[in-house]
Design goal:
Elements: E1 2-6, H1 11-23, E2 28-33, E3 53-57, H2 63-70, E4 76-79, H3 86-91, H4 94-113, E5 119-124, H5 148-167, E6 171-176, E7 178-180, H6 189-198, E8 203-206, E9 212-217, H7 218-231, E10 237-240, E11 245-247, H8 248-259, E12 266-269, H9 284-290, H10 298-311, H11 313-321, H12 323-334, H13 337-346
Parallel strand pairs: 1-2, 1-4, 2-3, 4-5, 5-6, 6-10, 7-9, 8-12
Antiparallel strand pairs: 9-11
Helix pairs in contact: 1-7, 2-4, 4-5, 6-8
Bound molecules: nicotinamide-adenine-dinucleotide (NAD) and 2'deoxy-thymidine-5'-diphospho-alpha-D-glucose.
Length: 349
């Protein structure tokens, strides 16, 4: 397959690119990414010389650029690009509406015009809101987003649904729980803990720390997306959960034990406004229709994540320095040759 991946310089997108190119030797990928604060090309350094991969710097909301790229011809789009951090959306929601709603609209409109045959929209479990004790959301559960981030993702998700109903646009929607693993930006809970604890800094635990998340190893999510891309039915939604429901406090204590750090680093701070108490998904449909099941247990995945952050201190330093953004932006603004290269190998003409 010739794939256009958006947001591939971020956490899940970069893991997905690596996963696809390892599992499907004949596939090629063009990665369209704006390189916001969370997009980092150092994450994909090992891909730079792979002839099946090319990078284009651009915004999914830039209609003319998106049209130019799509004119080269792709078999499918896998759409990750988004503003993703709940706390940032509480401080200022503008970029969330801009990218997650308007950017998604622009990309989907352009994809429809270009006659794209498959479009995977990477949505999130947060669109369902907080799960009551003992209940798991199915794909039929009503959407009830509680944070500005979740509301913006629900906007893109519903736009995709409407595109299928109105235009028979071949979209597949996926809703996954909390991912963890290599290359996650250290503003999110697990990498924030690992990078702060490594420096002996305190770990902020929101509220009572008893909020429950269902943690999924990022490569298991990538396998689910790959299955949805190849086997999913158009117009359908698939939940991806791992059944690893742990309270935040338990995650924090477990990681401190793995790191050999004291629990005195835990610092209870004011709760996040509108904080969802629990996320939990019923993934039976993905098991049945896609033949997908997550394979990595939480304790094994957390151990691998601890090891990865310990062994990749350079990556963490690079990301924390913020210097990487200026460096790569300059590089890609100067040579739009990348675009030409991408189109040459990604296009069918
Ligand atoms: P991330 O923040 O690590 O990466 C987002 C990427 O999108 C970055 O590379 C950024 O530069 C790029 N981007 C942002 N705005 C853009 C724009 N306008 N045009 C082009 N590129 C742009 O995010 P992530 O955690 O990898 O999440 C990827 C997707 O998966 C998102 O859609 C998110 O909602 C969804 N998701 C995430 C999780 C999770 O636990 N992280 C769970 C379920 C779903
Ligand atoms: O559920 C999927 C979602 O998971 C994705 O759609 C989002 O893009 C992703 O950011 C994530 O959202 P969360 O809000 O659940 O993730 P975060 O890592 O920000 O927080 C995880 C839990 O940890 C949450 O209950 C809040 C808590 N937390 C978070 C931070 C950053 C803390 O207690 N302290 C912290 O410093």
């Amino acid at each position: 397959m010739k794939l256009l991946v958006t947001g591939g310089a971020g956490f899940i997108g970069s893991n997905f690119i690596r996963y696809i190119l390892a599992c499907h030797r004949g596939d090629s990928i063009v990665n369209l990414d704006k390189l916001t604060y969370s997009g980092n090309l150092q994450t994909l350094r090992d891909m730079e010389n792979d002839r099946r991969y090319a990078f284009v710097r651009g915004d999914i909301g830039d209609r003319s650029k998106v049209r130019k790229i799509l004119a080269a011809g792709f078999d499918a789009i896998v759409h990750f690009a988004a503003e993703t951090h709940v706390d940032r959306s509480i401080l200022n929601g503008s970029a969330f509406i801009q990218t997650n709603v308007l950017g998604t609209q622009c990309l989907m409109d352009a994809a429809r015009e270009a006659g794209i045959k498959r479009f995977v929209l990477v949505s999130t479990d947060e669109v369902y809101g907080s799960a009551p004790a003992g209940k798991k959301f199915t794909e039929e559960s009503p959407l009830a987003p509680n944070s500005p981030y979740a509301a913006s993702k629900a906007g893109g998700d519903l736009w995709a649904r409407a595109h299928f109903r109105t235009f028979r646009f071949p979209v597949i929607i996926t809703r996954c729980t909390n991912n963890y693993g290599p290359y996650q930006y250290p503003e999110k809970f697990i990498p924030l803990m690992l990078t702060r604890a490594a420096k002996g800094q305190s770990i902020p635990v929101y509220g009572d720390g008893m909020q429950v998340r269902d943690w999924i190893w990022v490569k298991d999510h990538c396998a689910g997306l790959d299955a949805a891309l190849r086997k999913g039915r158009e117009g359908e939604t698939y939940n991806f959960g791992a059944g690893n429901e742990w309270p935040n406090l338990e995650i924090a204590r477990h990681l401190l034990r793995l790191l050999g750090k004291p629990e005195s680093l835990l610092e209870f701070v004011q709760d996040r406004p509108g904080h969802d108490r629990r996320y939990a998904l019923d993934s039976e449909k993905a098991h049945r229709e896609l033949g997908w099941t997550p394979e990595t247990g939480l304790e094994e995945g957390l151990k691998q994540t601890v090891d990865w952050y310990a062994q990749n201190a350079d990556w963490v330093r690079h990301v924390e320095s913020r210097g990487y953004r200026a460096y790569y932006r300059k590089q890609y603004d100067r040579r739009d040759l990348t675009l030409a290269k991408a189109l040459a190998h990604g296009g069918r003409k």
